[in-house]
Design a protein that fits this description.
- The chain is of the alpha+beta class and 423 residues long.
- Among the domains are: 62 residues, no CATH class; 62 residues, no CATH class; 62 residues, Substrate Binding Domain Of Dnak, Chain:A, Domain 2; 81 residues, no CATH class.
- The chain is built from 15 helices and 8 strands.
- It has a 4-stranded mixed β-sheet with strand order 3-1-8-5.
- The longest helix has 23 residues.
């Protein structure tokens, strides 16, 4: 019985211990990886490169960060405090103010180099000095270089100064013959020569002009300059002249166009002719066209003449007593206007030979006439203005009350004078 009870108590104790094991497990350590990296970076900095005030702030943040990093009691429950210490420390390092290096002498050396003219020195000695200048300029423009790197700045200054002192002088190149050849080429007109011969001459000119304008060349480049002059001179001598294009037929076609009256045709009829004329006129005015372009000129001439020949027939219109006379194609709407003489009034139009006045406007002094496929005549009809007003009953309504009153009064007075017996 005792033995059974002992076994039962041992089992109960084991079960209790198993239940308490999760509660007895230790918490995980806090993650200090980023904080440790920040501390390592700070320890690699040199205090002398930064202003005392900014370094003091960074060092204070470092002390706090170091204390947190060395606290072995911190667990994952303290991770927020670790992260905050890391953030504050990094912010303090970012706020460090660099004490810049002294670049005064380096700037003076750079200015001394920039005052030089490349063409006055041999290419080999200039190349060395230019390389030293480029390195120095890069350091001069770098705002992140602090006082701790003063040796680097001083070395760059010494390199520029030494290479300037080592420059070897050179005499300027003689470009007089090259300039003369360029001027001779510029005096030519490209359209006086064949395209095939002008192309190499122009290419030689471009090379020559590039060398002539290059201010870095000196006596070491005289061979290249003389070669460019010789090539250009030879290309000019090889130019193949051409004759101007023959534009006589083109000019005759244009004159034929100019003799036409645009108002004689409908807009849709006239448009193709105008288009062909503009192309032809452009070619006539283009002084650069030569015999190589004769085919284009002949084609423009043929196109213009074909467009003119395609115009429809025009017929004469005579307007008697008005304006609008001319020659017009069939169906064209022609504006006509009667010219009313003094003392007369317009009555109507008389049409002879076909065509018609626009419906609704046959008796208007200003109207439109539709041209027939034949010659036509329009005559404006007028009648005396006084006759119309006084004796034509059809226009009696034109009189107002005063006119009629005066007429009756005078008529009655005359009647009484003739019919009243004399005393």
């Amino acid at each position: 019985m005792k033995k059974a009870l002992s076994i039962l108590l041992a089992a109960a104790l084991a079960i209790g211990l198993l239940a308490l094991m999760p509660l007895m497990a230790s918490a995980a350590d806090a993650d200090k990886t980023d904080l440790g990296a920040a501390i390592s970076f700070f320890l690699g900095l040199a205090e002398t490169n930064y202003t005392p005030a900014s370094w003091a702030d960074a060092d204070a943040a470092y002390q706090i960060a170091l204390g947190v990093f060395n606290d072995n009691t911190l667990t994952d429950e303290d991770q927020d405090a670790v992260d905050q210490a890391n953030a504050d420390f990094r912010a303090a390092m970012a706020a460090l103010v660099i004490i810049p290096a002294d670049k005064t002498a380096l700037g003076a050396a750079i200015d001394a180099f920039l005052a030089l003219t490349e063409a006055e020195w041999t290419h080999a000695s200039w190349a060395v000095a230019f390389a030293a200048y480029q390195a120095a300029q890069g350091l001069y423009d770098d705002d992140t270089i602090y006082v701790g790197a003063q040796g680097l700045i001083d070395g760059a200054e010494a390199a520029v100064s030494n290479t300037i002192a080592a420059l070897v002088a050179a005499n300027p190149a003689d470009k007089s013959d090259l300039g003369a050849a360029i001027n001779a080429f510029l005096a030519l007109k490209w359209y006086n020569f064949s395209t095939a011969s002008w192309a190499p001459a122009n290419a030689a000119y471009l090379i020559a002009k590039g060398l002539f304008d290059d201010n870095t060349l000196n006596e070491e480049d005289q061979g290249a300059i003389d070669g460019a002059e010789a090539a250009l001179t030879a290309a000019i001598a090889a130019l193949d002249g051409v004759d101007p294009a023959d534009k006589d037929a083109l000019e005759e076609a244009i004159n034929k166009y100019l003799a036409l009256n645009a108002g004689s045709f409908k807009e849709s009829t006239w448009a193709p002719v105008v288009e062909a004329y503009l192309i032809a006129k452009g070619m006539l005015d283009d002084i650069t066209l030569n015999e190589e372009k004769q085919g284009d000129i002949d084609q423009a001439t043929a196109t213009l003449l074909a467009a003119i020949d395609a115009l429809p027939a025009i017929y004469a219109l005579v307007v008697n007593g008005g304006t609008g006379s001319g020659s017009y194609e069939e169906g064209l709407a022609v504006a006509i206007s009667a010219i009313t003489p003094a003392g007369k009034a317009f009555v109507s139009w008389t049409v002879t030979g076909g065509g018609r006045v626009v419906p609704g406007e046959p008796n208007d002094a200003n109207t439109t006439f539709i041209m027939p496929a034949s010659a036509a005549m329009l005559t404006a009809n007028f009648r005396p203005l006084d006759y119309v007003r006084i004796f034509n009953l059809k226009t009696a309504y034109e009189w107002n009350f005063g006119n009629w009153f005066m007429f009756i009064f005078l008529f009655g007075w005359i009647w009484m004078w003739f019919t009243t017996p004399s005393a």
